[in-house]
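sorry for the late reply, my laptop died twice this morning and i had to redo everyting from scratch. anyway the thing you sent over, i finally got around to it. pasting the sequence first so we're on the same page, its 200 residues, then the predicted structure underneath. double check i copied it right bc i was rushing
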Amino acid sequence: MKKYYYTAGITGIVVNLLLFAVKLYIGNATFSLTIYCDAINNLGDTFSGSVAMLGFILAVKLGDKRSLRAQSLAAFVISIVIALTGLFFVYRGLDRLLYPAAVAYTNNYIAIIIGTIFAKLILGALLVRLNKKAPSPITKALALDSFLDCFITLFTLMSTLLVAKVNFAFDAYFALLCGSAITAEAVRCIVKETKYLINE
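ok and here's the structure:
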């Protein structure tokens, strides 16, 4: 069981750190707000993976009931990080509405972004599989976040293409939409884990 926990945590950290670096470069190169925000989202996921590893280590050491409490606390912290990421999206979306910027892209960049979607799909599937072998609220939260990221990156790609074609601030609206959805889902998880921690 410990092996599955560590595999989930380390894999999440490595994949998200790589995706952050790739998307940050492309976001800065294309002046795409949504790709930039997506990169920050992956940076937040990297931090979440680090929190997950800490939660797994505590869970293994504590054992039994205290293990579940430690994992719930880690899931709570991860949800807060996700909520802050969503709020950052909203802030940058509002900023782009006030100060529009031209977006330019190449087919190579688009292909790379599509590749990152598949990377997140594979990561999410791996986390689901690991969660079946060793159930944990942490792994479940990381898997859900991975699948949400697939849709976020898909919206990111769509908005980048639209902005470049019609010269309209679609990326700002997509950032607002994605940010609001991420924040809402994160708040739901925060409330859920808070109730568990209080009742325990």
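The chain has a mean pLDDT of 80.
thats about all i looked at so far, will dig more tmrw
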